[in-house]
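Handoff note, outgoing to incoming analyst
You'll be picking up this chain. Sequence as last confirmed:
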Amino acid sequence: MAMLITNGLVVTFEPDALHGRIIPGGAVAVDGGTIVAVGETRELQALYPHANPVIDAGGKIIMPGFIVTHTHMPYVLGHNMPVDFTQLKSFWDMLQKMGWEWLEDITTPEGIYAATRYAAMKMLKSGTTTVCELVEGPHALPGALSASEKAIDDVGIRAQLGFEVTERIPGVSILDRLDRAMAEKGFEENLSFLARRPARGQGRLQGRLGVHTAFTNSPETLKKARSIADRLGCGIQIHVAEIPRAFLVQKYGKSAPMVLEEQGVLGPDVVAAHCIDLTDEDLEILRRNSVNVAHTPMTNSLGGNGVARVPEMLAAGMNVTLGHDCFFTLDISEYLRYAFLLHKAHSANPALLPPFQALDMVLGNAARALGMADRIGSLTPGKCADILIVNPDCPVPVVPSSVLSYYTSTFQGRHVETAIVDGKIVMKNGSMTTVNEEEVRRACIQEARVLWRKNGISV
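Most recent structure output, in case you need it:
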């Protein structure tokens, strides 16, 4: 029998936020894991008179789930860690100390499992139903992706998942030495996972090859990454131009986009996170190779990295999406609002990035970036039933003419009442149905204590 969600303000986002149909008193019918009809409630009630369950969404919004294209879920173990922040005088310090020494290099499979369960749960509870996750942790090999996979299966979020391929040696400065043997371990982890969870498979969880950067990998490693992506059709996720451009120019005489294009890495199956320190020529390289950008404004602000040239990317027709690295609350509303506001302030231009463009970054654009535009990102018959019911806590009417602005002005993750992934209700009335929320939180806290003690913090 079909599931029927009725009497809501249906916001389809098909084909996009600006042109998508909005249906007052609307309904969505779901059969198995697929949306089978979208329309007015009376129409769908007549088509599916025996639907079970029927969910009354009167006074609420029915919409597709949000999509985040760059996450590192184990990073939640480092939230609020009371380290000596006076050591962090630049992004380079933050990368080497906070990112590597204090987190990735001491992460265990147990920590990955506990943190990923918690992060996936919190993202679902605030409306994120799909993530592109890049797992990092050289001492968690082999088995890092198995731990992440189990956590994602437990919680019920949709994900593309890969492990970071890097020649970086834990404890050794990347300015001193790299080792291709480290990258081989990363390739083995990805290939093992892709054998279980092939790209473009029909399940909730798919593989996407992870690569760290052009700076931390040799041309041979980069070429191998492209060869694997082509052979398995799995796409690539990679950090691009997060560190200052001068590092690449000093090492190669070229920028990251130049190096990656030269080695054949770039293409429409690449999700490139950050993309901050870029020249006009760099932007053109990414554009002509149809690279998808995962904009991470909050993380970039934390690291003092600068502001990515997102308005120019959008004006050039580039596909820009939203990522967040899991450094902060995991509430999609905060990342969406920050992206909406940042570029207005940075460029002193309030007309930049209107609500519909910000929403596309976490819906249709993101679905295209992950090669899943035919499956997620909008409410359309034939697509996966990844659906949110949002109960807006708002001081003004939420109606077709105001609903897009609601997301950038008023929406908070706590307004998400019900989340459905692949036709399964994973959160109902604000509570998870797949996991015990308190047990997940306690387990994550315990693994955080383990990691903190390794950094000399008594807890």
